[in-house]
Design brief:
There is one protein chain. α3 runs antiparallel to α4. It contains 4 helices and no strands. The longest helix is centred in the middle third of the chain and has 34 residues. By secondary structure, it is mostly helical. It has 2 domains: 38 residues; 59 residues. 69% of the residues lie in helices and 0% in strands.
Length: 123
């Protein structure tokens, strides 16, 4: 229990600070009369027209997920590239074939996405 005392103390200080900030904000804050103009969103001096949230195409989300997929591929390649020389000296060329198979699977996914038209912006 003695090891957790600094953590509990930090949590108590954080909660106390947040509560104090909210209480002082309510006490010292300026309360003004509310009206429609003050409650509306500020859009560079222009009156707000239309829906609050525009609808995005599903294509946007598809491209975002493909980006995350291929971004994660690169994230996995960095540690592999860092340990490649050290590992190959001790264990042989197996690590090369593992990475080649990993890249091959992702390449198949990339070709599939292109063939399905997932990256075609004109559609």
């Amino acid at each position: 229990m003695k090891e957790y005392l600094p953590i509990f103390l930090q949590v108590i200080v954080a909660i106390g600070f947040a509560a104090a900030a909210l209480i002082f904000s309510v006490i010292l804050g300026k309360s003004a009369k509310r009206n429609k103009a003050k409650d509306s969103a500020y859009e560079c001096g222009m009156p707000a027209v239309g829906e609050a949230q525009p609808r995005f195409s599903v294509k946007f989300y598809l491209v975002a997920m493909l980006f995350i997929l291929f971004d994660i591929e690169i994230v996995f390649m960095y540690p592999w590239a860092v340990i490649y020389r050290e590992y190959i000296a001790h264990h042989g060329a197996d690590i090369f074939w593992y990475m080649l198979s990993f890249v091959a699977v992702l390449t198949v996914g990339y070709v599939y996405a292109i063939m399905k038209g997932a990256l075609d912006w004109k559609r």
